[in-house]
Design brief:
With 429 residues, the protein is of the alpha/beta class. It is 31% helix and 22% strand. The protein contains twelve helices and 20 strands. Helix 4 (107-120) packs parallel to helix 5.
């Protein structure tokens, strides 16, 4: 503050929330936080929270599913704070939900707890809320599916954090267990797609978490925080910027507040925009309002699907028919082959609607059928490219031609040429 900052944004935890509240209230310094919102302590009027309060969404899901006995497993103080929020909602609406709270510091202790629950009641459904970090949650879910595979597993997991989009759910591509969670990010949203395309190109050594197909919720909230700060800054009159000093002393007694703190806070609360985390707007207390969470679900026989949404305010929980969510793909694979019966052949008949066949539809044969199935299973697009010289490949004048040349140049091959024939030349993966 002594260096002339006009606002602060960043993470905070239940352990540091009191200090943040004290500093912002004393110095009237606007603070845009991306940590867990607190409801059981007074909040400074100069604080805004980018992470919405969504405990009502968790309670609405338990009501919709008819859960009465629920095991709440968490690994941090943040989990205790969220549990307190949930209890407030249960008491407010006089609901009959029995929450059994258990702090578990690591994955092994969580697995031990789940094993005991399974042994105690092998036939009944166990309703479990998992409030743990992304890596731990992914490992727990995968281990339950693998280690309990020979038993009748009747777990239904509800993920307490808004991080289901960050989890490695590849093991459940075709289902296998009941898992439900909320996401504040819609991976099909154009702004999210564009941000991910840039995010995966960044150096992870300089930008922790970058270089991946997924962006963390904290990173997305940080992105949106900067957007809110920029929009609010543009609303402040230039004359006001020049009139008031930007530096405030941390050592004066009594403390001197930041004279533009209230103006900047009011400007921040008035911002309405769209970001990576959807619609951004704030109520008079600095909490997110009018936001929407996607409800995502995996079942025993279906992979990750969008099954509804939850909107703050009166709309609440809205269920819908399952819509399968496919992982993002922005690459088209090239598959090279040679016209050779029965592996790959050009169609000789005309389409029933007239004209000519186009694209991959020009071909039939064993290789075409295999390519279709693999592309469907692995969820990618592809283009068939016939080898121009119709050769499998032979070495001439220091270079290879034919299919071997295509493969060396990075094209996938599909034909009767065996791996052994080119294994000495190209490393297969």
């Amino acid at each position: 503050m002594a260096h002339g900052i006009v606002a602060i944004f960043g993470l905070y935890t239940p352990k540091t929330a009191d200090a943040v509240t004290s500093y912002t209230r004393t110095f009237q310094m606007p603070f845009v936080g991306i940590g867990q919102s607190e409801t059981y302590r007074p909040v400074s009027p100069f604080q805004l929270s980018m992470r919405p309060r969504y405990e009502k969404a968790l309670v609405d899901i338990m009501i919709s599913f008819g859960w009465r006995d629920v095991h709440y497993l968490h690994d941090t103080d943040e989990g205790i704070a969220r549990l307190d929020h949930i209890y407030q909602q249960i008491n407010k609406y006089k609901l009959h939900i029995n929450l059994r709270n258990k702090f578990l510091p690591d994955v092994d202790s969580t697995m031990a707890r789940l094993t005991r629950l399974q042994a105690k009641d092998q036939d009944g459904y166990k309703h479990v809320i998992l409030d743990m970090d992304t890596n731990s949650t992914s490992e727990i879910l995968t281990r339950v599916a693998r280690e309990f595979a020979t038993a009748k597993v009747n777990f239904h997991f509800l993920l307490a954090r808004l991080n289901i989009h960050e989890l490695d759910l590849s093991y459940f591509r075709n289902g296998g267990m009941n898992i439900t969670g909320f996401s504040l990010l819609d991976p099909r949203n154009a702004s999210v797609v564009n941000a991910l395309n840039d995010w995966k190109l960044l150096d992870p050594n300089l930008w922790p978490g970058a270089g991946k197909q997924r962006i963390s919720l904290d990173a997305a909230l940080g992105h949106d925080s900067v957007k809110v700060l920029v929009k609010a800054g543009r609303q402040i009159n230039t004359i006001m910027w020049r009139r008031y000093p930007h530096r405030i002393s941390c050592y004066e007694s009594p403390p001197q507040p930041w004279l533009l703190g209230q103006n900047i806070t009011d400007a921040l609360k008035s911002v309405q925009t769209d970001g990576l985390t959807g619609k951004i707007a704030f109520d008079e207390y600095g909490y997110r309002k009018d936001y929407t969470l996607d409800l995502l679900n995996i079942t025993g026989g279906r992979g990750l699907s969008k099954t509804g949404s939850w909107t703050s305010g009166k709309a609440g929980l809205q269920m819908r028919p399952p819509e399968i969510i496919k992982p993002p793909t922005n690459r088209t694979r090239i598959i090279t082959s040679i016209l050779n019966k029965p592996y790959l052949m050009e169609k000789t008949d005309k389409p029933p609607w007239g004209g000519n066949w186009t694209g991959n539809d020009r071909y039939i044969g064993f290789c075409k059928d295999i390519a279709d199935k693999v592309a469907e299973k692995c969820e990618f697009d592809y283009e068939i490219k016939v080898v121009e010289d119709s050769q499998y490949g032979y070495y001439e004048n220091g270079t290879w031609n034919g299919m071997v040349a295509e493969l060396i140049n990075g094209v996938r091959t599909c034909n009767s040429l065996s791996q052994g024939e080119v294994g000495s030349l190209i490393q297969f993966r």
